[in-house]
Amino acid sequence: MTHSDWRFRLREHRATFATAAMFALIFALYIGKHPVGWSTPVLTTAANKGVLLAIVAMAQTLPVLTAGIDLSVGMVFVLANCLASHLVVGSAWQAGLGCAAVLATGALCGLLNGVIIVYGRLQPIITTLATGIVYFGLALGLRPVPGGDVHAGLADALTGALPGGIPAMLVVLAAVVLVVWVPYRRSVTGRAALAIGSSEAASYMSGVAIGRAKLVTYTLAGLLAAIGGLLLTFVTYSGEASSAIGGVYTLNSIAAVVIGGTSLAGGAGSAIGSIFGAFVLRTIGDLLFVFDLEPLWQPLFQGVILLAAVSFGSLRLLKVGNRLELFR
User: Fold this and answer.
1) Which end of the chain is more exposed for a tag (fewer CB within 10 A), N or C?
2) For residue 73, how many other CB atoms are within 10 A of its CB?
3) Lowest mean pLDDT: which of 123-132, 148-157, 197-206, 256-265?
4) What angle, 0 to 180 degrees and rounded to 10, lies between the N-to-C axes of helices 243-259 and 271-290?
5) pLDDT digits (tens, 9 = 90+) for 17-45
């Protein structure tokens, strides 16, 4: 790779690097102030909370890259949680089949979003707002009251720590990135999604398969949201149809996407940046705990950081006449 190639890569991913540096700074402050400090229980707890939002933020990133949005990711997350509390039980093979059914349901929800958007020609924000309500209704039908169970061995393995104190959840997150995001980003569909986000009209004139790209994108978003809901079941050992949980995860996923440097106008960004954005949001709440501040301050800190991230992105866009200049 030539020097100019490295320079291009660094400029392309500078927002991701900046978000990663922000997370490292905030997390170092958190660990330094924590009474226990750097220890396996602290790291595992932080990872279990952060990875849930990180995966939902990944789900949100994919539609945003196409200049769309998915307001149903939080409700798919809740639906998967409720469904898993029914299906991921019994013997190991029964639990495995249950996991597959939960993930297939999430992908189906995402595919339904995509079909309505592509063939119904409705705006993503309206479509996913409506389908999100439907998915929450299904979750409420499955779990009118919180409860259920999950395969204990599988839950313990995925929410505990590996030899060396490495949180298992981080390994799960890395696997999701390698299996879902990396192939998607390097595929023709992934490149098409970025082209659509930059200019859908130009993409159409260039022969890009817009419909297929959007169908795949929203299907993968539903799959990722279902992975997050499945992991939530492993963390809580139960299912709960909570509109509050769904709403919080949806809004925080959008915030994580923005903090991670992905443009809400589409065409530029990375799921890796969204992951670090999610970790930043989660660590802010932990900082309030170790500094013994009122929880009511958390929205203020999150809002300030989000506003700063949006302002930074807006300043970059105001300086260019063509989005391609962002990568020069």
Assistant:
1) N
2) 36
3) 197-206
4) 110
5) 888 888 888 888 888 887 777 888 888 98
Q: How far apart are CA 5 and CA 15, in angstroms?
A: 17
Q: Which string of DSSP letters, residue by residue, matches 2-29? A: -HHHHHHHHHHTHHHHHHHHHHHHHHHH
Residue 145's CB is within 10 A of a number of other CB atoms, namely 9
Range 122-130, long-range pairs (CB < 8 A, 24+ positions): 124/63, 124/68, 124/69, 124/70, 125/68, 125/69, 125/71, 128/63, 128/69, 128/70, 128/71, 128/72, 128/73, 129/71, 129/72
Q: Break the chain into its structural domains and give their ranges.
A: 40-275
Question: Helices 210-236 and 73-87 sit at what angle, rounded to 10 degrees?
Answer: 50
Q: What is the dihedral of CA 66, 68, 71, 72, to 10 degrees?
A: -50
Decide: 84 and 106 in contact? Cβ < 8 Å. Answer: no
pLDDT, tens digit (0-9, with 9 covering 90-100), for 58-101: 999 999 999 889 999 999 999 999 999 999 988 888 999 999 99
> Which residue, chain included where needed, has tokens 């890569």?
9
How many residues are listed for the chain in this entry? 328
The confidence band for 324, taking pLDDT boundaries of 50, 70 and 90, is very low
Count the neighbouring beta carbons within 10 Å of the beta carbon of residue 288: 18
Q: What is the DSSP letter of 118?
A: H
Q: What is the mean pLDDT of residues 156-172?
A: 90
Q: Are 254 and 277 in contact (CB under 8 A)?
A: no
